[in-house]
Fold each of these.
Amino acid sequence: MSYDEELRGRQLRIGTKQTTKAVEIGTAAKVFVARDADPKLTSKIVTLAKKMSVEVTYVDSMKQLGKACGIEVGAAMAAIVNE
């Protein structure tokens, strides 16, 4: 299953702040990180996700991740959250 199929129709948190919060409070089931996003942002979420035992999947670009999340702009990261 591709990441865009995995994201479709799911409860999401998009962007750095929302994704980080979802991981911190334990509602994130899986995190998606764009490879071309600023490493200063992405390294923190990758470390946090590993610490919280949340799977991290890399996506080629912010543009692709944003499109897969159903938004018109790029996204550095997104999380699938448990309802």
Amino acid sequence: MTTMGMLMNTKGQVTVPADIRNRHDWHPGDEFEFVEVDGEVVLRPLPVAETRGQRFVRGLSGRGTADMDKTTDELMEMLRGE
């Protein structure tokens, strides 16, 4: 078992040491859960089935429309107005 002392910042954030992140192949954007087991807190990665970003993109899918027949100038005029 590896033990290291880390400080929590004012936002409640704690940095996971690089050697632990590398050993477990953890990357920015990975999601985790905190679980209390026998009075101790355990950090566990969530399954990679679908990340928060993927859920966000899926939620946006089909919401936009494209005006492919307009020129760049026409689109800019449409966005900016007169």
